[in-house]
Specification:
It is built from 7 helices and no strands. The protein has a domain of 99 residues: Up-down Bundle (Four Helix Bundle (Hemerythrin (Met), subunit A)), CATH 1.20.120. By secondary structure, it is an all-alpha fold. Helix 4 packs antiparallel against helix 5. Its main location: mitochondrion. It is an enzyme of class 1 (oxidoreductase). This is Sulfhydryl oxidase. Its EC number is 1.8.3.2.
Length: 183
């Protein structure tokens, strides 16, 4: 999805950083709340306020919320992020030690498309900017692993999360911890 399809920068709500995602509902280009860009807490808070102002009678709702779990709902920004990083690190872990020219091209194309298509436009814009600034290094599994870890740490830093020791990326995502806890 190209930037022009997402809407211009001027039509998007302005956020100062990725940390805004945990505190407020982020709007999509259509002006409606974006579940994939907002935390479940922020979205739930917004939804409860919206229900209070809605003119739809409560008895018109046919699905009981007690029969559905949060796993049956669209992912919020945190769940989407965790799943996405797991996928990206797993792809990296299975990347060849000595990739062919076409494998290098394919993984770079994939990551660039991933940044363009990511459901949370704030995250997508941020990842796309990271790729532009810190070009994808894909000459080997180890090189891609370090690049991916650095990209993930860039997001972690913005969100105030712990920084991961990139020397341990392969142990975390490919071989399992040396203490045998993954065996």
């Amino acid at each position: 999805m190209a930037d022009d399809e997402r809407g211009s920068e001027e039509s998007r709500p302005v956020t100062s950083s990725l940390t805004d995602q945990t505190n407020s509902v982020i709007l999509g280009k259509d002006g409606k709340p974006c579940r994939a860009c907002s935390s479940s807490a922020a979205f739930s808070s917004w939804a409860s306020k919206a229900k209070k102002t809605s003119k739809i009678p409560n008895n018109s709702v046919t699905t009981s919320s007690s029969t559905l779990s949060s796993r049956d709902c669209p992912p919020d920004v945190e769940a989407l992020g965790r799943a996405s990083w797991t996928l990206l690190h797993s792809i990296t872990a299975s990347y060849p030690v000595n990739p062919s020219s076409s494998q290098k091209t394919e993984v770079i194309q994939f990551l660039k498309l991933f940044a363009k298509l990511y459901p949370c436009w704030v995250c997508a814009t941020d990842f796309d900017a990271y790729i532009e600034k810190k070009h994808i290094r894909a000459d080997s599994r180890d090189e891609l692993g370090f690049w991916m870890c650095e990209a993930h740490n860039s997001v972690n830093k913005k969100l105030g999360k712990n920084i991961f020791d990139c020397q341990k990326w392969e142990e975390r995502w490919r071989t399992g911890w040396k203490d045998g806890s993954c065996d």
